Amino acid sequence: MGYRAKLFLKGSPFETSETDALFLSAMKENCNYQYLHCIEYKKILDGLGITPEAIRSFNQLSDFPVVPTLLFKHHNIFSMSKKRMLIRATSSGTRGKKSEIGFEFSGLLFGASMVYKIAAWRHLLSLRPCNYVIFGYKPHRGNTAAVTKTAYGSTFFAPAIRRKFAILYQDGKYGADIENIVEQIIELSRSMFPVRFMGFPAYTYFALKIMDEKGIHLKLKKGSKIMLGGGWKNHYSEKVDKETFYRLAERVLGIQDIDIIEFFGAVEHPILYCDCRYHHFHIPRYGRALIRDVDTLEPLSYGQVGLLNLLTPMVYATPILSVMTDDLAVLREGETCPCGNKSAYIEIVGRVGLHDIKTCAAGAENLIKEALK
Fold first, then answer.
1. 157: domain range?
2. Mind listing the pLDDT tens digit for each residue in 121-177?
């Protein structure tokens, strides 16, 4: 059994400090594969003078080449033939460009094991059937967005009776119908089964606000939950703080904050970050996070704000071992969270466009261009 398999298939999901050595070995194993099978990534390693063998200590984790997610939005970079990839998923492309990330069978298998373990940890798995309201895109054959696949996949945490979608594909494009979904929620509230909500927090909030303004206050069945993922995207200016959202959800649906679960992730970093009881994103054993200085890219210590660098050896089909997001974040020590989870957690504080940041990581694109000549 390889290092990656041991990391994903064994142990509990938040054994992080206990698996540092295993994580490093899995990263080196993946990096060596990319060096041998991905000409673009080999060019980056050679250009930076880095070899997998030279990274011997977990303290050298930051030495793996950090690639901006922006790079994947401009270049399709794969490490195996397309016929070996079970799926290719894309980012939402809210800025006009989409990343396309390939997933091989083993990567998907390990991902499924990860999702199962984290969902079980957060008590999301249930044999009791429920109705689902998805504040996201209804699947369509032309929609390859990872956020669509993730939202639909979450409806298998408990058996689905009905699935209602807020964003439908009609006349060749997607459109949201919040008023209609409000009527659907009212209808589902009369069922003897719980209702689970999943999707974009912005659309979830808009529906709850409409209901509150109309005086529609429901008491959903025990076991109802709200699962949020995907961020506020184009509605960032209308974003409300979590406490405001939680109070609204309890007032309108009777769902308390303990049953509101938030997910964080990206197609370029397909690790499931699920908040704890106190809504902190603890880092699971399947990934690691570094906070880097905006100007120098040097790793920062706990409590300092910088660019979020996410690492995982999960996928071989695309070289996404170490990616730089456009999130500004802070890393907190796990002991500061009252939930009892000792793993460090990520606190997202904002977003910034990578095209405005002059770093050595941005030079990776020049190396890619040379490799593609």
1. 123-264
2. 999 999 999 999 999 888 877 777 778 888 889 999 999 999 999 988 887 788 888
What the block records as the tokens of 186 is 């009212």
Burial class (CB in 10 A: 0-12, 13-18, 19+), 191: middle
The predicted pLDDT at position 354 comes to 44
Q: What's the CA gap between 25 and 64, in Å, rounded?
A: 12
Pair (237, 366) in one structural domain: no
Residues 257 and 184 in one domain: yes
pLDDT of residue 140: 79
220 occurs within a structural domain: yes
136 and 192 assigned to the same domain: yes
Q: Is 237 exposed, middle or buried (0-12, 13-18, 19+ CB in 10 A)?
A: exposed
In three-state secondary structure terms, 295 is coil
Q: Per-residue confidence at 362, pLDDT binned at 50, 70, 90?
A: very low
Three-state SS for 156? Answer: helix
Place of tokens 């071989």: 316
* 277 within domain boundaries: no
pLDDT at residue 234, as a whole number: 63
- Pairing state between β 225-228 and 260-266: parallel
Residues 218 and 334 in one domain: no
Which ranges of the chain does DSSP label H, i.e. alpha helix? Answer: 3-9, 20-37, 39-48, 69-74, 105-121, 146-153, 178-188, 201-213, 242-253, 364-371
Tens of pLDDT, residue by residue over 62-81, are 999 999 988 898 889 999 99
What does the alpha-carbon distance between residue 87 and residue 94 come to, in Å, rounded to a whole number?
21
For residues 294 and 256, membership in a common domain is answered with no
Question: How many domains are contained in the chain?
Answer: 2
Whole-number mean pLDDT of the chain?
A: 89
- On whether both 250 and 295 belong to a single domain, the answer is no
pLDDT, residue 366, reads: 52
Q: Rounded mean pLDDT of 188-205?
A: 94
Number of Cβ within 10 Å of residue 175's Cβ equals 10
Contacts of 343 (CB under 8 A, 6+ apart): 14, 16, 17, 282, 283, 284, 334
User: Residue 213: which residues within 8 A CB-CB, separation 6 or more?
Assistant: none
Q: Do 245 and 151 fall within a single domain?
A: yes
